[in-house]
Amino acid sequence: MPTCKECDNEVDALQSVKVEGKSKKMCEDCADRAREAGEIAEASEAVVQGMMGFKGRR
């Protein structure tokens, strides 16, 4: 059985998720947490850019 690199638990299947530009294989629970953390980071960055008046793209 494959082992999740994030939580070290044995799982039935691993999912490939892009985290900070790199593809990582992790279990479904860890993948959901990584996606949520990425969405929160993007939203907070957008708010800060809006406050600073930044009009460009990263």
Structure write-up:
It is a single chain. The protein is of the alpha+beta class. The chain has one helix and two strands; from the N terminus they run ββα. The protein has one helix at 28-52; strands spanning 15-19, 22-26. The protein has a two-stranded antiparallel ribbon with strand order 1-2. β1 and β2 (22-26) form a beta hairpin. It starts with 14 loop residues before the first strand and ends in a 6-residue tail after the last helix. The relative contact order is 0.15. The model has no long low-confidence stretch (mean pLDDT 89).
Quick one: how many beta strands? Answer: 2
Summed over residues and divided by their number, the pLDDT gives a mean of 89
Order of helices and strands: EEH
Number of contiguous helices: 1
Structural class: alpha+beta
Question: First CA to last CA: what distance?
Answer: 40 Å
Strand order of the largest sheet: 1-2
How helix-rich are the residues, as a percent range? 40-55%
Q: Which blocks of ≥5 consecutive residues have pLDDT under 50? A: none
Sheet-strand content, in percent, reads 15-25%
Largest sheet: 2 strands, antiparallel
Morphology: elongated
Radius of gyration: 15 Å
